[in-house]
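Deviations from the work plan: none for this task. Representative record:
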Amino acid sequence: MNKTQLPIRTRFAPSPTGVMHVGGVRTALFSWLIAQKNNGIFILRIEDTDKVREVEGSIEQIEKSLKWLGINWQEGIGIGGPNAPYLQSKRLDIYKKWANQLVENGRAYTDPYSKEELEEFRNQAKADKIPFLYRNHRRESVNTWAESKPLRFKSDPKPYRWNDAVMGELSTGPEVIDDFILIKSDGYPTYNFCHVIDDMMMGITHVLRSQEFISSTPKFLNLYEALNIQRPILATLPYVMSIDGQKKLGKRDGAKDILQYAKEGYLPEAMINFLATLGWNDGTEQEIFSVDELIQKFSLDRIQKSPARFDEKRLLWLNGQWIRRLSLDELYRRVHDFWPESAKQASEKYKMQILGLVQDRLKTMADLPILTSYFFDEPKPNWDMVEKDKYLSKLNIGEIMGLLKSAQIALSSSNNDAKSIQQNLNTLLETTGQKPAVLFSIIRLVISWAPFSPALNETLSILGPEKVNSRLKLAIDIATQISR
RNA sequence: GGUCUCAUCGUCUAAUGGUUAGGACACCAGGUUUUCAUCCUGGCAAUCCGGGUUCAAUUCCCGGUGAGAUCACCA
């Protein structure tokens, strides 16, 4: 078989039952990477056959999430394609046709039992301590399909041994094969049935899905045989687990909406990098991967077999790395919604200068206000910060006032560039005979009243002499009052 | 309970039938004129247990143990 001739087609097929969280996103990402790497097609299909669990607005959320990450699809919801429609609820005729074929071939039959009767069978099996198998209760049935009743697959129990692109060779015995429902009594197909039909019709070559499907795979294999269709390459992805618990990360375990990370100031580059390296690596010591590098280097056979925990601290670190990697222009575009309210009136040039100063200090873009608000607003003095300071607490109020006054004089004669300000500060160190720890601390505090700030000379330079002078003056006034 | 899967520092992982078991995050300590961050240096820390095969096992085999999944008219 010549693999270069096979067009790779992968899909992401979520059900619209809520927001997207990290596990689902990673499945989408890996499927997308495989397609991109091989110049293939990535399809977005929506599996909305459970009308009870469906949540309105989910499809939009899914699309928005994928778009935020830059995971684009070439066929599917929103854009159509040769295999439209891509919404399963619009494909009921197709499933019905294939179901009828199975009925005709004697591989599907009407389930005659009520839910109560089935429940009875299950309880009995439990009491007898034997596994429940529906096929033990098959009746000799006619090959007709009463559409108000569920349609079941007539399975052909046998052992299976198959290859999984991630897990390697897997095997099961015949006892896991049972007669499952193909079409529910409400007329909608089950996932077990319709995903097989759709994957076949859409020419899917690689099916990536998470670990919980591993035990139902034999059922699918049995169905592939009954339909006489070739199965795609199967790849099972290990779970993403919550950091503390041992549980698969799901909605109930506090898994966040992926878009929440966007709101919290994370970059899609960081999220992609993080998710890709959660359970995959290229065998080198590289930690930072761009999307292009991932497309180039990604491969199924290097995916980990065991589940990985979602470590948000690592994500945070990666986000900082990616923030630093962006050009200032690009970062400026990204932080658009994160400036403090008071920055609204400020000029682009001013904000750009400030951004350049704090770029190395941002872990997320949401850190922007706390790092920059005193550039836009007059900060509220809090003399407590002076009194509690490691160095300043040793000085009396007179000494502090003296330092502030000397600073006021020295800085008023500066040119306003960072370099000459630094020279003046250096001179001031000599004339006052103070250590930088003391002198710079007091100036920094009364200028910013912030717990931390960028290099002093640059901060002063960007603020400009007027603001510097007025804030020093205000501090001197406060000190004067205290000393009385 | 039946069936299936997995198992290297706290976390993400690399490697190999022979290595001082490597890297990264986190944490701790030190350095870069104040703070915070970056950056640099150093430190802490792992092959689940028991057998077998072998000159040699973390690696191969078997058995435990632990963890997870699944056994729906959910996907």
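The first strand of chain A starts at residue 9 and ends at 12.
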